[in-house]
Amino acid sequence: MRTWMLCLLSLAGLASAEAQETDLTGRVYSLIADYQLNCEDLRSQPWAFVGKGKSVRLRKGEVMPQDHWYVGCEQGGKSLFASSQTYTSSTGDYREGWNQRFESKRGVLLRTRIYSDKPATVLKELEEDEKKETLRAISRIDPFDQVFGTASSLRTGGKSRRNNWEMLLSDTCELVEGKYDEDGNVVAFFKLDWNYPGTMTITFGKKSDFLPIDVKQTVTVPGNREIPLSHQLIEWKQKRKIKVPSHLKAISNQPSGLSQTFNIDFDWRLGKEIPAKIIDSEMPDWREKRRILFDVDWQRRGVTPLDLIPDPNTRG
Fold first, then answer.
1. What is the DSSP code string of 201-250?
2. What is the pLDDT of residue 309?
3. Fold of the 26-308 domain
């Protein structure tokens, strides 16, 4: 009788251990907290990044390649974010259209030209509707926030929303399931009830210290049809004691049929690598000190980029 009871208790213990192993709800929220701590470690010091990449837009059989730059920096309570994409002018040559956003305790300044010679827009002086429209047009691309954002932000210039991971903890986001895949990664499945109903599937990579390496989002359209909205693959590298995004491949799909694929490489500078007063709103070109810091040169107006045609040796 005693042996039989011990067998039952042993089986019950095994069943309990297996249940704990398969129920990863707590593990998922712990990984989100770890991600937040990694971001806070970055933002506790001066930091800067430059992202360079390409995209290909597909719509009704038309193929449109574009070059992209993404620039960001924070230091001493000030920040600068800028992004650009090539476009075709009326004369048929390629130009880079830049959006630039400078933030400090005094407010937000915006520029929309490569060397802006018109008065900068002061956000606090705008009416509320004008402010929302301006923020939509000129916003920030922060690689850490982009991880949980949508790929379409890379095309439109980004979202003003900071700390996207906080949305995963809100009442409009439900964690349905967390599990291990065959490679030991943690996969979390969320139901979303934001501006639209949808889903988000996040894979936290075992080989990347369980940081997000794969983020998929879907949207539910009329007729209860679920379609892919965004898919992002993220690579990470060690920068001192912090992990930073080093490469992003993203696919954006729109219900209208527009599809766009991005490939972006990020380079980072942290802490003492950042020179003093790298952010200066009085400079004719806000981006110039970052261009020098990273030893890069973006295209100038009227110049046709030779590398606009995708390189077959570039990562897919």
1. EEEEEGGGTTEEEEEEEEEEETTTEEEEEEEEEEEEEEETTEEEEEEEEE
2. 33
3. outer membrane lipoprotein receptor (LolB), chain A (2.50.20)
